[in-house]
Amino acid sequence: MDNIIEVSYFVAAVLFILGLKRMSSPVTARGGIVWAGAGMLVATLITFFHPGMHNYVLMTTAIFIGGVAAFWSGKKVAMTDMPQMIALYNGMGGGAAGAIAAVELLKGNFHSQTFLTLAVLGALIGSVSFSGSLIAFAKLQGLIRRPMRFAGQQYFNLAVFGLALGLAGMLIFKGELAGMVILAFFAVALTYGFLMALPIGGADMPVVISLFNALTGLAVAFEGFVLNNAAMIIAGTVVGSAGTLLTQLMARAMNRSIGNVLFSSFGSSGGEAAGELQGSMKPIDAADAGIMMAYAERVIIIPGYGMAVAQAQHKIWELSELLLKRGVDVKFAIHPVAGRMPGHMNVLLAEANVPYDLLYDLDEINAAFPQTDVALVIGANDVVNPTARTNPDSPIYGMPILDADKAHNVIVIKRGQGKGFSGVENALFFADNTRMLYGDGQAMAGELIQAIKQL
Question: Which of 81, 373, 382, 432 is catalytic?
């Protein structure tokens, strides 16, 4: 039976890796999720046959409740709320790793100091990931609307983290594990997770979620070593490495270091005021915008989180189909941090049946903007802000952006004249070649469709 268990864990690990690989492309992502899910099913089922396993009723009940809750929430959640759902589920993974560590620490039956050390480290990392992910969820859900900062906060946080490390050291090097020390250790570790996430602005939360995801994977891998569970070790390592790479990708897309994301005050105030920018916002009606797009040769559509909120992706694709039938060259420009998570816009557009070959990344599309007649921006803000190229004093200076301002004409669909998610005023909206189409994204896309149909 031991050989069957080990082979099953190996098969599960292979399915995890192949599934993750297939998730790297929108074409194969759905299959990748199925493959990874099959791996998890294999790993879960074979655990019931592990020597010494008992409490089958409790295990089955927990799996049933968790499975039903996950299925219900997965079906119910809107695509716009997917980032906070990811944060919540990621937190559950960190919490599970911390719970495993708590049980093992209370038992105190470790084969060596190495296993005890891994258990404590997994407990620390998992607890921080759990509580920090809850704050990330609350911020993206709008339950916490502002960063919470106070004088000397980073030093206070460092002191709390130092206390957590001190308690961890007591657990590792103390001969007998005391229950009160374990309780204090988890309380301080959870507190540090809260404190770590509270001062970070909402615009940076996606990066923080990805970082916590990497930490959860690391915690699971450590606890896998403690339990001698190959599936946990491999799955945790894969999740940890993927989360680390994703965190680096997102930070690089904003031209910022991970340390800057975690410890700066980005997003707490808004950069330039409108009065400091040259020009004014110039409105346009849907009829004139429709004519401009219908008689263009090349149109680039730039979707952002505002499009997701308005659920306008289907209308935007209907608009694109009309333009394509008129012989207009239509492309979609996708910024790595458009929306709230990498791939968010790709999924939304795939949901509307937009062909993958019309989607272009930042590096692929930027050279095309100077030859583009109309750039249609719907719901995007910071990722098209030319201030990132021109103003060294701006908090987003150096961030790679989509060069929408270089198009001959720019049409921006926007609800009002407010700033973007990061609180930085957008110079694009004041440019001479930009016209503002004010209104709900879905409604304005519908009016553009009607305007083009009447030509």
Answer: 382
